[in-house]
Amino acid sequence: AEEALDERGDLIDAAGGRTLSLFSSWRGVERAEEYLSVRFKGRTDRPLIVARKGDSVSDLVRRFRESPESSLLGTVSLWQGIDVPGNTCTLVTIDRIPFPRPDEPVMSARAAQADAGGGSGFMQISLPRAALLLAQGTGRLIRSVEDRGVVAILDSRIVNKRYGSVLLNSMPPLWRTSDKAVVRESLQRLSNQLKD
Q: Please, which residues have CB within 8 angstroms of residue 156's CB and are 6 or more apart in sequence?
C-alpha cells in the first residue's frame, strides 16, 4: 500500500539508512525499490541494496556492512541466518505478516491435513510458521546486548486481528508503540548519536 511505502521511506530517513527491509514477496521488493529510488533520487546518503533472485546473501550482507547509510531490501533469504551486529542495522521493517503462500505445497498440504482432522490449518500450521518467521526477522536487529533500534511491522493485522497477540507474544519482549511520531523521533535520536 502507498501508505506503507511512505511510512517505510520516513523511517529509513529517520534512521539515517541503516535499514534491513524484509518482504514476504518479490513483488513487494520490486515495488519498494521503485518507490524508494524515486523518493531518494539524487541523494547519495540513502543507497539501496536490492536482493535479486539468485544473489549471494553473503555478498549482500558484506555490501550492507560496508555502507552504513544503506538500506538492504530482500525476501525470505534475509529473514534468517544473517548476522549484522552493531550500528549497521538499527531499523528492520517488515512489510507483511509472513504467512505461508497458498501455493506453497508442503505448508498447504499440512494445513489441509489439519483441517481434515478437525483442527485448524490456519491456527496449527500457518500461524506458528508466521510467528517463527517474525521472531527470526526481529532477530536480525538484536544480534548482541548492545544493539539498539526499531522493528517496524507495517501490517496492521498485527494489532487489528485476534491472532495478532499470538504473533506479538512470539517475538522478543521489545517495547511496543503504534505512535509513528515516537518511532521516528527515537530513530532520529539514535541516528544523531551514531553520527557523533
A: none
Coil, helix or strand at residue 82: coil
* DSSP assignment letter at 175: -
Distance CA 86, CA 57 (A): 19
Flag whether the pTM goes above 0.85. yes
Whole-number pLDDT of residue 196: 65
Q: What are 107-145's pLDDT values in tens digits?
A: 778 877 877 888 877 888 889 989 999 988 888 887 777
Measured CA to CA, the distance from residue 124 to residue 126 in angstroms comes to 6
Helix (H, G, I), strand (E, B) or coil at 42: coil
Determine if residue 156 is left, alpha or beta; phi over 0 gives left, psi from -120 to 50 gives alpha, anything else beta: alpha
Lowest mean pLDDT segment, chosen from 39-48, 74-83, 179-188 = 74-83
